[in-house]
Amino acid sequence: MNQPELVIIGGGPAGLAAAIAARKAGVENLLVLEREDHLGGILNQCIHNGFGLHTFGEELTGPEYAARYIRQARELGIPCFTGTTVLDLGEDKTLTALSPERGLFQLKPRAVILAMGCRERPRGALNIPGFRPAGVYTAGTAQRLVNLEGKMPGRRVVILGSGDIGLIMARRMTLEGAKVEAVAELLPYSGGLRRNIVQCLEDFDIPLLLSHTVVEIHGQRRVTGVTLAQVENGRPIPGTEQYYPCDTLLLSCGLLPENELSRQAGVKLSPVTGGPLVSEELETNIPGVFAAGNVLHVHDLVDYVSQEAAAAGENAAAWLEKTAPAGELLPITAENGVRYTVPAALDRARTGPVTLRFRVDRPYKKRAVVLRADGQVVLRRVRPALAPGEMETFTLKPDQAGACRRAGTVTLSLEEVSP
Ligand SMILES: Cc1cc2nc3c(=O)[nH]c(=O)nc-3n(C[C@H](O)[C@H](O)[C@H](O)COP(=O)(O)OP(=O)(O)OC[C@H]3O[C@@H](n4cnc5c(N)ncnc54)[C@H](O)[C@@H]3O)c2cc1C
What we know:
The chain is α/β, with parallel strands linked by helices and 419 residues long. It has 3 domains: 1-119 and 255-326, FAD/NAD(P)-binding domain; 122-253, FAD/NAD(P)-binding domain; 327-419, Immunoglobulin-like (Sandwich), CATH 2.60.40. It has 9 helices and 29 strands. Strand 1 (6-9), helix 1 and strand 2 (30-33) form a beta-alpha-beta unit. The longest helix is centred in the last third of the chain and has 20 residues, at 302-321.
């Protein structure tokens, strides 16, 4: 097999956008490896609309959005091996992959883009007491069963967790004829987008029970009900228990970036996002290994995944050409309500604009988001509201980015706004 210069692991929206951008930037010899039989990643099971407003100015379904990138990749003649799982990634970028067609094989590209997406937090990680009856699914598994396999997981449903997938599945199950009794959320706020709370719950009169959790799952062979209770400081409040009869419990309790391969390779991961710590070039601590999409940090909109991944593709191309040698890295400190930033560090050798993405740690009303270089304000934006479910994005102009790159310290924080 011809050794590719660049291998992209994952053929979801991130992997495809990265491959297309790299090819357009001149990388001829590249390869996408995808473990599923089809390209498009998780979007293939997201058949509702709402994708692509930023990128295409129209509302597409997940498969339609993915199809546009798959078509472009085909038009550009980008080779994609589907049904191919990458099993191992070494520090020297040696990849071991397996497919029924090619068996076990190794590649040694000069550069790699990690685009493996994320997975759902499973029940085992949630410590819900009770038996292990049938009828407990993650929301993503239920989405796959209903949308791809045409099977209904159940008829009477309780959902734990109000992330976007849980909200979307509340609507989907209702439209398919199931009764969704309630969506329970441990936190005092939803982790999903406001538009999804309105369109998926309020429009269908599905109750959202904030500060609630499942304290017991009933049923031995099949779920017969769950007990929900109110929660304070992370603990159920005795006496608030309420029984909900149901045959299905869907879990939508967070997404985890899929970084087993990254860890094997020695990529440094952020304890906050679970994704690689990357520079402005979206390069990890291993030179020539880049990351983008949900493997890097969980995104709210796929449009941002595509933008970020396209940048990773261009940066990988520049790295292969050695047109953009990396400079000294300057970490960005996220504080006072800002959970993290991507990138986590600026590159002193770079010029030009930089896009900063971040999330806040809880909902806030009217706060200024302030970027400081050596204590001096470089950018200040007042936001009427900020929510952890919504990713925030700033693009710093070249002069603002330059002021930061020359500084000794850079911080991003929330500050009170005087009334
Ligand atoms: C269950 C689920 C449902 C979602 N539903 C919605 C939704 O309804 N609306 C919405 O806006 N967003 C949704 N999202 C978010 C959505 O994932 C992102 O917007 C977007 O798909 C992320 O793109 P990605 O390419 O980073 O990841 P993905 O789309 O997850 O693509 C990653 C790809 O990498 C492949 N891969 C992983 N490991 C390997 C390996 N070792 N070897 C080879 N290939 C590998 C996977 O098979 C996959 O195709 C959902 C996410 C999940 C997990």
